[in-house]
Design brief:
single chain; 166 residues; Serine Threonine Protein Phosphatase 5, Tetratricopeptide repeat
C-alpha cells in the first residue's frame, strides 16, 4: 500500500454516489480491482471489500470480511472504523447483541473523532435489544459535548436515564 493507492481508493469512494443501486456490482468490482493490488495478507483488502458490500446494502456479505480484516491485524483508526461498521452490520442482520459486545470496550478506548460514531452505533445496537434508555443515554451524552448551552443539564439527564431507580 502507498499514498497513490490510498488516493485512488479515496477517489473511488468520493464517486460512490454516482453509482445507482443497479450498478452496485460495478462499484464493488472497482474496489475489488484496487484490493487486488495489495499483498494477499493485507488487512486493508477485506476491510475495503466489506465497506463496499456494506455501502451497497449487503451487510450479510460485509460481516465476514470485517471479521477477516480484524483477524489479519487491522488496528488503529481503521480497526476502530471496522469495529463500528461491523457492529452496525451485525445489527442490520439481526445480531445486535454481538454489536454491543464488540463496541462496548470502545467506550473506554483512547478518544478520537470516532467517539460519537461509537456511541451512535452502540445506541442502535442497544435499541435493537430493547434497551432504548441506555441507547438514548449514550446519544445524549455524545450530543451534550456539542451543544452551545445546556451541556451540563443534558449530561445529567443522560446519566439519569440509566441510574438505578430508588
Amino acid at each position: 500500500m502507498n499514498d497513490d493507492w490510498e488516493d485512488r481508493v479515496a477517489a473511488a469512494w468520493a464517486r460512490f454516489d454516482e453509482y445507482p443501486e443497479d450498478r452496485a456490482a460495478d462499484f464493488r468490482a472497482l474496489i475489488d480491482a484496487l484490493v487486488a493490488e495489495l499483498p494477499e495478507d493485507s488487512p486493508l483488502g477485506p476491510f475495503e471489500q466489506a465497506c463496499a458490500w456494506d455501502s451497497t446494502g449487503r451487510s450479510d456479505k460485509a460481516v465476514p470480511l470485517y471479521r477477516e480484516a480484524l483477524a489479519r491485524g487491522l488496528d488503529g483508526y481503521q480497526g476502530r472504523r471496522a469495529r463500528i461498521q461491523l457492529s452496525s452490520s451485525l445489527r442490520n442482520i439481526g445480531r445486535p447483541e454481538e454489536g454491543v459486545t464488540l463496541l462496548t470496550p470502545e467506550l473506554d478506548a483512547p478518544s478520537d473523532e470516532l467517539d460519537d460514531a461509537v456511541r451512535a452505533t452502540l445506541a442502535l445496537c442497544l435499541s435493537g435489544l430493547g434497551r432504548d434508555r441506555e441507547g438514548l443515554a449514550l446519544v445524549l451524552e455524545a450530543l451534550a459535548a456539542h451543544l452551545p448551552r445546556y451541556q451540563r443539564s443534558m449530561a445529567n439527564y443522560a446519566r439519569a436515564l440509566t441510574a438505578p431507580e430508588g
